Amino acid sequence: KKIILSIIITIFLAVSVFAANISDLIAKGDKACKIGNFMAAKKFYKQALQNDPKNDKLWKKYDKALKMLYG
Questions:
Q1: Predicted model pTM
Q2: CA distances from 25 to 2, 5, 35, 41, 55 (A)
Q3: What is the predicted pLDDT for the residue at 17?
Q4: What does the angle CA 47 – CA 51 – CA 52 come to, to the nearest 5 degrees?
Q5: DSSP secondary structure, 60-71, as one string
Q6: Nearest of 54, 56, 52 to residue 25 by alpha carbon
Q7: Contact 26, 61 (CB under 8 A)
Q8: What contacts 10, CB < 8 A, 6 or more positions away?
């Protein structure tokens, strides 16, 4: 029982860290966009997309950063 509980806790913590990492990358991208640093925003959003490629809202943020950067 203790081994199974340990495995479940480890999986839960790994998923939590993974989600927090994506949230942090998106927050950094949002902050970069807000100050006009679209190159940095593009980088942060792209990193987040590598971990969450089906996130439509994130794709829109990435597209916006690209449009602001390249016209």
A1: 0.75
A2: 35, 30, 16, 9, 13
A3: 47
A4: 110
A5: HHHHHHHHHHH-
A6: 52
A7: yes
A8: none
